[in-house]
Amino acid sequence: MPTVVDEEKCIGCGSCVDVCPADPKVYEIADGKSKIVNPDSCIDCGACVDACPVQAITMK
Predict the structure, then answer these.
(1) Residue 1 has pLDDT above 90, yes or no
(2) Architecture per CATH, 3-59
(3) What is the average per-residue pLDDT within 15-43?
C-alpha cells in the first residue's frame, strides 16, 4: 500500500476520491473519513497527496 491516511487529520472532504485516477478508486469516504479500500489499484501518481487540504495523506 503506497499511501497512508492519517485519520486524526482527515476531514472527510473527499478530495482524494475525486482526483484518484485508479479504477477502481483507491479511496472511499466512510464514517466521515477517507478509507483505503483498494490499495492494489494505486498507481503511485500522488494526486491524492497533492489534493488533500489538510495533508492527511502521505506516500510510503
Answers:
(1) no
(2) 2-Layer Sandwich (3.30)
(3) 96
